[in-house]
Amino acid sequence: MGHNNANRDFLSGGEEKVKKTTTLILGCGDIGMALGNELLEAGHRVVGARRHPQALDGSGLEAVAVDLADPATLPGLPDANTLVYVVSADRFDEGAYRAAYPDGLKAVLQEFAGRDRPPRRVFFVSSTSVYAQRDGEVVDETSPAEPSGFSGSLMCEAEQALIDHDLPGTVVRFSGVYGPGRDRLIRQVGEGRIAPASPVMYSNRIHRDDCAGVLAHLIGLSLAGESLEPLYLGSDCEPAPLNEVMAWLARQLKVEATETIQSPLRRRASKRCDNARLLESGYRFRYPSFREGYAQVLREGGFLPAIT
């Protein structure tokens, strides 16, 4: 727990230090805004960059326009102590993924490496989709990432570009992100649809607020001068069979499962993500398992049946 306290002291510490701390969040969407608000509370200056910056109106973050597909827009980005690259591809196709991940990240690295005051660290938000393991294996940061599809392959290319770069960089691979507004699983269960119990398909997830918390924690360590690993796996503490997660949701929603979901699930990976490295760094999950996390989403989203 010591690390957490050190971060907090640093992040909320002396005014002189805080004033100089700027975090630039590239691709500032749902996770970026949650992270930005945490950093603002800790006294950072936070700049959110996205193609349509008006989406950040009312968020409290400084907003700046950038189009990562157009390198001419990059010099307009401010200098920052920390860069967080949390970009989403426009569509699920190879061209969009190439533009968003390896090409966009490489252009940003080139821009900021050439500045008089380059960032102290760059964080790239990646995905556990880079793993090809499908038979319930435990995976961690040392496991081979040998994706078969274009999305995982391009994500791996972007990761490697950062790890090989002269600027200090850390990759954070998030598993399935859920949270407010990310409620597809709840809606499926609400319709009476549930994953089969057999064969067991392990699923891994992380609440949106823990995504923000993990990034804020690692940024704090970096700014406090702690050494960081080049790669962290960001997933909660309990990989769980998808059937178990959906059956639990059905009990909360008080619905009977009437249909077994089949076709899309055959293509899903089944693996178990090990977050030991992240825990060893001092991070403590707000939502250690799907139960705490989905309880919050059900409550906040108004999904729970009225008590009569």
Automatic annotation (TrEMBL):
<dbReference type="InterPro" id="IPR036291">
    <property type="entry name" value="NAD(P)-bd_dom_sf"/>
</dbReference>
<dbReference type="InterPro" id="IPR001509">
    <property type="entry name" value="Epimerase_deHydtase"/>
</dbReference>
<feature type="domain" description="NAD-dependent epimerase/dehydratase">
    <location>
        <begin position="24"/>
        <end position="182"/>
    </location>
</feature>
<dbReference type="GO" id="GO:0004029">
    <property type="term" value="F:aldehyde dehydrogenase (NAD+) activity"/>
</dbReference>
<protein>
    <submittedName>
        <fullName>SDR family oxidoreductase</fullName>
    </submittedName>
</protein>
<dbReference type="GO" id="GO:0005737">
    <property type="term" value="C:cytoplasm"/>
</dbReference>
<dbReference type="InterPro" id="IPR051783">
    <property type="entry name" value="NAD(P)-dependent_oxidoreduct"/>
</dbReference>
<dbReference type="Pfam" id="PF01370">
    <property type="entry name" value="Epimerase"/>
</dbReference>
